[in-house]
Amino acid sequence: MSSLQGYVDRRVLLILQDGRAIVGIMAGFDQKSNVVLSDSKERVYSMEEGVEEIPLGLYLVKGDMIILIGELDESVDQAVDLSSIRAEPLPPIRY
Predict the structure, then answer these.
(1) Domains in the chain, ordered, with CATH?
(2) What is the pLDDT of residues 52-66, one digit of tens each?
């Protein structure tokens, strides 16, 4: 649990069990690894169009839905032209 403390106030990428990719600033977390993101956006990937970013604002993600949390380098992330990226959406994780 304490390993999440290093991500607070940093821009992170969350990959969820349903295949969604959420980017935002980690505002906090709790003992069940539920995560609160501020200024969050969902990135929707497509083979036909570039990456679409849907603004979500303040967003709560249940800890049991999170597959991966990683810190984003903001300067590198801002330099990437998301409209030029074509990718298949991630499939949902099945247990």
Answers:
(1) 2-73 (2.30.30.100)
(2) 999 999 999 999 999
